[in-house]
Amino acid sequence: MRKSHELETFIKEHYAALCAVAVRFVGSPDAAQDIAQEVIIKFWENQHNQQDINSIGNFLYTMVKNESLNYLRGLQRETQRYTKLEIEEQEDPQVLNQLIAEDTNQTLINAINTLPLQSARIMRLVLSGYENREIAQIMGISVNTIKTLKYAAIRKLREYFSSGNYELG
User: Which of 63, 83, 112, 124 has the fewest beta carbons under 10 Å from its own?
Assistant: First the structure.
């Protein structure tokens, strides 16, 4: 319980500033919030390795800058993939779109099923269109806990998909 209070205090102290820095890099408030939350999670989970830090603020700024650059590179790669996909879609868009949607949905369901129960439930609610506040009300836990669990789950899903240890179709 003490750790969650410390995390909540840490978030209150740094979240707004991290969002402000990230939005300057990426230009999107939503993406900036995601980046700030990802940085907080990474920092919090690895703080035992970071005992020699002189300035937490400078360290967090560097983390936000790096996450922002990674986000922008990812957008560039995604744009290139979509451009390539659009060319392929012109051949038979309906069949291709249906196959991709079915395959993606099944792969995502399989990935979500690997998460802890509470995180899996949060991700299912997110995919159903619920916002963090609504999920917090449904589950009876704080919005900050939802955010923390949600972004930890997203990180685990990213690891799941980047590992290549899943089967398509």
Answer: 83
